[in-house]
Amino acid sequence: MASGKGKDKPEDGDLKTDLGIVKISDEVFADIAGITCTQCYGIVGMAGQSFHEGVAQLLGRDSLRRGVKLKRKEKTVSFHLYIIVEAGINITEVAKNLIDQVKYMVHTTTGYEVEEVQVHVQGVRAD
Known about the structure:
- There is one protein chain.
- The chain is α+β, with helices and mostly antiparallel strands.
- The chain has helices at residues 26-39, 91-110; strands spanning 15-16, 21-22, 43-46, 68-73, 76-86, 113-125.
- The strands form 2 sheets. Strands 3, 4, 5 and 6 form a 4-stranded mixed sheet that branches.
- Helix 1 (26-39) packs across helix 2 (91-110).
- The longest helix is centred in the C-terminal third of the chain and has 20 residues, at 91-110.
- The protein is elongated.
């Protein structure tokens, strides 16, 4: 939301410009992280945050946010990502790559620094 009249006051993390204030919602951060996850090699998809009855639920493309939990403070954001990986792939390398990609994409698209990324592997699937 941008306002040229100055009625809105910037909160922690908002970007103030000559034309107004730019506010980025938590949903945007979750979308960026979720889309980045699905584009990383070795990741089959996002999973729900709860592990119900021992079976990880693979989320559809329209509900990627449900596999992302985030916390913002000032100009930093932290993530918990719930993923399902492809069988036979080195999980540690997939997680390292995912962390790097999420940090890069969030920073380049929003200007926020990523303080922490925790990867929770909820399942392994063979495609």
